[in-house]
Amino acid sequence: MQQSDANPQTPVMSLHEIDKSFSGVPALTDVSLNIYPGEVHALLGENGAGKSTLMNVATGSLKPDGGSIVVDGEVFEALDPTQATALGIAIVHQHPAVLPDLTVLENLRVALPPSVFSGRPVGQVVDELLGRVRLDVHPADRVENLSVAQKHLLEIAKALALHPKILVLDEPTAPLGSESVEMLFDLVAEWTSEGTAIVYITHRMAEVRQLAQRVTVLRDGQVARADASIADVTDEDMLALIVGRRLASAFPDKRSGGSDEFNLVVDNLSGNGIQGISFSARPGEIIGIAGVVGNGQEELMRTLAGLAPHDGRVVIGGREMSSGDLLRASEYMPADRHHEGLIMRLTVRENAAISALKRFRKGPLLSRRREVEIVTDQLRALAVKAPSLDADVSSLSGGNQQKVVMARTVLGEPKLVLAHEPTQGVDVGARAELYRIIREISAQGTPVIVASSDAKELEGLCDRVIVLSRGQLVVELTGDEIQEERMVHTAVTSRTESLRTVVKTRSGSSRLSRFLQGDYAPVVLLGAVILGLAAYILAQNDKYLNAFNVSSILTLTAALGFIALGQTLVLLLGGIDMSVGPLAGLLVVIASFHFSGGAQLGSMLLGLAAMILVSVATGLVNGLLIRYLKFTAIAATLAMYFALQGFSFILRPTPGGNIDRAVSDIIQFKILDMVPVAFLLLIALTVGLEFALKRSRWGWRLRAAGSDEANARRVGVRINRTVISAYVLGSLLTFLGALMLMAQLGVGDASQGVNYTLTSVTAVVLGGTSLFGGRGTFVGSLLGSLLLVQVLNAMFFLKLDQAWQYYLQGLMILVAAVVYSVVRARVKQRVAA
């Protein structure tokens, strides 16, 4: 690789005396850094040293407590992601800032400025971006189905699209295979030759030597050495600066002697993505799994962990294990620690202890004292840096999170340990500790299997290495045969045939698979249920489709449908609005004072203005309580629920104030005496919102905020504005539903409306919108509303007791939840295979 010899005197960016603390704990203290154009500046340090925090300050994801940022001579106290992008600053995060519920294309559209896609067809731009990083996926694939490596490549593609002047690469090669690493290094050379300044964060010394011209080392949030020429610093000096001491050999001694009996036998193992794999291990041996990323390593690890069914035999300690036995007996350290390795909402202590609860038992209860003692000893042995045992695990650096996963593994006392990329994102000092602990576990007689994209790691750690290609074992290496060059050569020259026999799209998923996993599969299912139910009722009673009944169904659907659209907005954010029912009731009560018989036009306009003002105020208060006072969505809107209901009864203790008949007739006007104009308006509004949700930046940002708030903020989504505006718009849609309810009731009644809260949630969930946010459709909510009204209407025609209404609603929600989750899970398994 050609390295730039440029030594410009003026930095393109300077960070001056940056300070940053979290909950009073200093993360950065008086840190300064100069970044020069056309150079790679390596930023090194242990996990928790402050590297990622400093770069998050530089790219606008965090605001510093003190100091300044200078970009091209312009001074800033702080940046936000939008400003940073405008200034030509981009970052490839250690944990990719991708939105799992959005597609590949939508991730690119929400993260990149519109100018990236102007002037050329969007598909052409996307194909070019994905092609440059050799990311072989379909733009319509949902990102949650991508591997960790593919998510990193997508993150790199996003950075490429910006043509940045300053690019931060935070552990970019950790999950990548050798081919992708070479591609990235070529891109780094290309970028620097064009004048781009690159800050490169890594724990791999070889990469520093190969890429960097300058190096800065952080230790404990302070600068240990700044702006040194890479030629003036030896590897030993860098390691000593990083950990504060000289390190011995990284790898412990391998097995020598011991029992010749096998404690692990894998015989002709086949399953999703793997076929006919056989190998064995003796006590004290560590088995390594090598190969180009995506050739069955993850599938083999998940199968051995009991997370996937298998054919063939797995024998541990002389006992043949079923998938269920493996699930109970093994401890699996997955490569994707955020989504599979840790429970991010739990504390450090809870994550470490969760697999070892039986060790803390004292009679029928658990001993908190014993738990704290054992967990503390294990975390101390791994040198985990955390504010406290009860700090959220999400607050730790990536490397420290990985140590918590290792602590949980050790505490669980498993019969089989499976470590997939165990040192990904872990600093050199902690890496040696992890290797030592893995070796100790193996020496105690527990089989250990390590899958890693780092062939040098497998060479130094493992006693036996199997190389996989396309889900099949191509060679087994032992002793002196375990060499990095041989593993890589075997993997890339293998001629094994693919296990996939079905022709698939570029991403390995068919169009049908993408549809079944997409947002519109529930819509089609609901449509089929509605038509099937209608056909059944019509067969029982031929008056079902007469004009009066059809008009009644569509009118009732309009009232519920408008409110359900508003509920959809907040559910897409991962929130909920319990106040919509009482709000609708309060609005009808307000209307009863202004739309009574003989009311003047001025009074009616004043009533409409009051209803709109109350709607906006309700949504605004809900949003402010959630975003600024940190109420949970259910707590904030439930408080509003009671407040609005109370106001309704203050205004109308008893029903009164008849709505003018002419007003009701206008609101319920029908075409051909069958189709309410309001229902046509509901359809038009649904189509417009659906288009905006899927094709506009507003819709992408709304779903991004619900999919992953932290990552949405990283890509420039203004979360507070998005959430508050969604609650306000949701309340305005409730106002439209209240107009329909006003016309149907014909009187101000404070007791009406409250049922719309749970009914609207039911309609939205039936339509396929996730309660966790990020995915759903307005079309589904409309059909869910129609189905609920249809079920209520069916009670009369089928002569069923009214209680059946609730039975059928509950049954529909249960069936929908099971069907949606099972179908998506099976499609995921099929794609993985």
Describe the structure.
This protein is α/β, with parallel strands linked by helices and 833 residues long. The chain folds into 4 domains: 159 residues, Rossmann fold (3-Layer(aba) Sandwich), CATH 3.40.50.300; 68 residues, no CATH class; 230 residues, P-loop containing nucleotide triphosphate hydrolases (Rossmann fold, 3-Layer(aba) Sandwich); 322 residues, ABC transporter involved in vitamin B12 uptake, BtuC. The protein is 49% helix and 15% strand. It is built from 31 helices and 24 strands. The strands form 6 sheets. The protein has a 6-stranded mixed β-sheet, with helices on both faces. A 6-stranded mixed β-sheet has the order 16-19-20-13-21-22, sandwiched between helices. A 4-stranded antiparallel β-sheet has the order 2-1-4-5, with helices on one face. Strand 4 and strand 5 form a beta hairpin. Helix 24 crosses helix 28. The protein is globular. The chain starts with 12 loop residues before the first strand and ends with a helix. The N terminus is likely disordered. It is found in: Cell membrane. InterPro entries: AAA+_ATPase, ABC_carbohydrate_import_ATPase, ABC_transp_permease, ABC_transporter-like_ATP-bd, ABC_transporter-like_CS, P-loop_NTPase. It comes from Leucobacter weissii.
CATH domain class of the largest domain = Mainly Alpha
Major sheet: 6 strands, mixed
Query: Tally of extended strands?
Result: 24
Mean pLDDT: 86
| Tally of contiguous helical segments | 31
Please give the alpha-carbon distance between the first and last residues.
37 Å
- The coarse silhouette is globular
- Poorly predicted tracts of residues: 1-8, 500-508
Supply the number of structural domains.
4
**Proportion of helical residues:** 40-55%
Largest sheet, order of strands side by side?
6-7-8-3-9-10
The CATH architecture of the largest domain is Orthogonal Bundle
CA gyration radius, whole angstroms:
30 Å
- Taken as a percent bin, the fraction of beta residues is 15-25%
Structural class: alpha/beta
What's the CATH topology name of the largest domain? ABC transporter involved in vitamin B12 uptake, BtuC
